[in-house]
Design goal:
heterodimer; A: about 240 residues; alpha+beta; four-stranded antiparallel β-sheet; two-stranded antiparallel sheet; 6 helices; B: about 475 residues; mainly alpha; 22 helices; about 35% helix; about 5% strand
């Protein structure tokens, strides 16, 4: 039999390297809602988001260029993110792990106190940590949508992969921490220009500072209520 | 050669090559199109190109996820695609692929590290990246983990410490939780199967009454001759006790119009009707993946592992291990495996302490569930579901619990052994070869994961930061 493998190898490498069909797989179907998606939907209904990169601020009914300024879009997105985050921390995590003594027994084993755990997926009787819940929401929102991205960073992150990444983040997180106010700007990542906003993320419930102050890998253990613990970064392509 | 002869020669060549390709496109044997040797995980289905490739020849995330998503979700994949979805995270992979960006991650994440048909570049686990690839993102580890000082990036995944996808039994929290466990746990039993009970409950919920059927109830058509042996085998099984009669398995849809009619040798579809989870696992496994892809059944002579010559042509389907009417799970747990597998690990099993325990159990000399068969480790009984739907499944896709061997720790080993002992045992290649007939000779790495944890706990104790 004639073997054409040697010449088809190159073709295969090319095909593997540049997939032609764009299908995004939902590998993890986490059922954590992202209200940010609702905001986007609302904006698109009013005709705003498509023009968010423009400098205009005119009526959505006018012809292009029109839309909402990136800063306002970021502020709106942040309002929803911060609200969801606060509700999860106060009404779910704090309630189940601090306010109440919930004991859970799984597979006939000794009951354990219900708690938050970074290994919640493989550990019965646990729930996702607030930082994970926020990240899952962000990942869920980004799956079928490349109009914006967001995440949580901190100078005192327990997981070092959540320290500031870009030069803009490294410089501006200091300003945000000192003033306790949002910082706005522009930066380029991998050849793409972005509008960036960073908002202070504060300690809103006992579960926040208790966990960060006690965690063996936490680089800081003196957080108090309402202190800035990190920043929510929203990035919108321009 | 004149110009006319040259043209004629070219035309003849094109016709011959074209004819060969066309013939192969329409035949089942498509080996001519293989661009290179396929990996151990995929070679069984390499002749069904469309198992992975789309009509345009491309491969993307869907190709991989259609088979691998379930396992990755079950173990809580440590590096899911989502981790690199942000632009700022995608560029962390630039040392691995300098063209990487957020858009490319979404369509070609798996193939960044697993490029098929490239044997010259493929290592363990089908990896087509250098063994120190962790460095691309974790080059700051020495600053953040004092315990890792001096270690090489080529040791992250090879010393029983980390696994790119499944760290469910290697994470620090898990290791701390199981610290100090003895090598042999006080209770050494495997979980008890609950399928029969679940079946009865489901039938009762649907208002059906299960009646034990015997040979006088057998409903095979009168034209079918049923031997005494078959009748005896069937009426002494759980099937007869659960009211499963001849036609429940032997009546299958036939022809284009899918008319229900008797078949002498039912396909796995019949088993699948009630044992959906088990069949699903089997069809994704090395034993059943060819059937799952719509190809002929796997036979031992196609295996890349050593197999017994006498079993070379044996076709692998449900009844290969469970037989047609007896459904002897004890046979399926050891003898069925031994009838084909001929490698050192398999051939050492009957000399191992695990097998002694198995013999004691089946002789009735030891408590139920205390024996260790091939299936105990390779087709483990795993808890699934939550709350009132929590149940035990016998996993029939042994690939999910095989390699890297750390994948066996949670579902298998820690039913009987302490985690530290397990880590050391699984990292000892000699021990795997002799089928755990001795004890681990040394820790899985130096320093071991537990050495590092002790070191960290000591530091925290000194700093007064050790939480209860």
């Amino acid at each position: 039999m004639i073997r054409l493998g040697w010449c088809l190898g190159l073709l295969n490498k090319r095909l593997c390297a540049i997939p032609k069909r764009k299908v995004i797989t939902m590998k993890k179907k986490r059922k954590i809602s992202s209200a940010a998606g609702v905001v986007l939907l609302g904006l698109s209904v009013t005709g705003g988001v498509a023009g968010c990169g423009s400098s205009g601020g005119g009526s959505p009914t006018e012809s292009a260029p029109s839309g909402i300024e990136p800063k306002l879009v970021a502020d709106m997105l942040h309002a929803v993110m911060a609200a969801d985050r606060k509700v999860y921390v106060k009404n779910v995590v704090n309630r189940l792990t601090k306010d109440q003594e919930v004991m859970v027994s799984v597979d006939g084993k000794e009951p354990v106190k219900f708690h938050g755990s970074e290994d919640w997926e493989t550990t019965p009787g646990t729930l996702p940590l607030p930082a994970q819940q926020f990240r899952y929401g962000s990942e869920e929102a980004m799956r079928d949508n490349d109009t914006f991205e967001y995440g949580l960073i901190s100078s005192w992150a327990i997981n070092k992969k959540h320290m500031p990444d870009t030069e803009w983040e490294k410089v501006n997180i200091k300003t945000m921490e000192e003033k306790g106010e949002p910082v706005y700007g522009e930066e380029e990542v991998a050849g793409q220009k972005y509008f960036v906003a960073m908002y202070p993320d504060r300690a809103t419930a006992k579960a926040c500072w208790d966990c960060h102050n006690k965690h063996p890998d936490s680089p800081r253990n003196d957080f108090e209520q309402d202190e800035v613990m990190g920043g929510i970064v929203i990035r919108i392509p321009l | 050669m004149d110009k006319f002869a040259a043209i004629l020669l070219w035309v003849a060549c094109v016709i011959i090559v074209g004819g060969v390709l066309l013939r192969n496109m329409k035949s089942e044997d498509q080996r001519v199109f293989l661009p290179g040797v396929t990996t151990a995980g995929h070679y069984q289905i390499e002749l069904k190109c469309t198992s992975c490739h789309f009509d345009d020849g491309g491969v993307n995330q869907d190709s991989c996820m259609q088979c691998h998503a379930e396992e990755l979700e079950r173990v809580g994949d440590s590096h899911p695609i989502d981790k690199f979805a942000k632009a700022t995270k995608a560029i962390m992979l630039h040392p691995i692929d300098s063209e990487m960006n957020a858009a490319k991650i979404k369509t070609g994440y798996c193939t960044t590290c697993h490029v098929e048909h490239t044997p010259q570049a493929t290592g363990e686990m089908g990896l087509t990246q250098p063994g120190d690839y962790c460095k691309a993102c974790h080059d700051d580890i020495f600053e953040n983990r004092e315990s890792h000082a001096g270690l090489g990036f080529d040791t992250c995944l090879t010393s029983g410490c980390h696994n790119f996808h499944d760290n469910s039994a290697l994470s620090e929290n898990f290791l701390v939780e199981h610290m100090g466990e003895p090598p042999q746990l006080p209770d050494q039993t495997r979980p008890t199967r609950d399928y029969a009970q679940r079946y009865r409950t489901t039938q009762a919920d649907m208002g059906k009454v299960i009646a034990y059927v015997t040979r006088i109830d057998a409903d095979a058509p009168s034209s079918v001759k049923v031997s005494e042996e078959v009748l005896h085998e069937w009426e002494t099984t759980a099937h007869a006790k659960a009211g499963i009669n001849c036609t429940d398995c032997h009546n299958q849809p036939q022809g284009e119009r899918k008319m229900i009619a008797w078949v002498d040798k039912p396909s796995f579809d019949s088993c699948q009707h009630c044992h959906e989870q088990e069949a699903h696992g089997f069809l994704g496994s090395r034993h059943g993946m060819r059937l799952g892809a719509g190809l002929d059944a796997m036979t031992p002579d196609q295996a890349r592992l050593p197999m017994k010559k006498i079993a070379a042509d044996k076709e692998l389907n449900c009844s290969s291990c469970h037989s047609s009417h007896k459904f002897d799970t004890q046979f399926a747990s050891v003898s069925a495996c031994m009838s084909c597998h001929d490698d050192k690990h398999s051939n050492s099993f009957k000399k191992s302490p695990h097998f002694s325990l198995w013999e004691s159990e089946i002789k009735g000399e030891a408590v139920a569930g205390s024996g260790v068969s091939c299936a105990t480790c390779h087709l483990p009984r795993v808890y699934e579901g939550s709350g009132s739907s929590r149940h035990i499944e016998v996993k029939h896709n042994q690939n999910d619990f095989l390699r890297p061997s750390e994948k066996m720790i949670r579902p298998v080993c820690i039913n009987c052994h302490g985690v530290e002992f397990t880590l050391d045992a699984l990292a000892d290649e000699g021990l795997i070869e002799n089928n755990f007939s001795s004890t681990p000779e040394k820790p899985h790495s130096a320093p071991s994961s537990y050495d590092m944890i002790q070191q960290k706990l000591e530091r925290l104790r000194k700093e007064g930061r050790l939480n209860e």
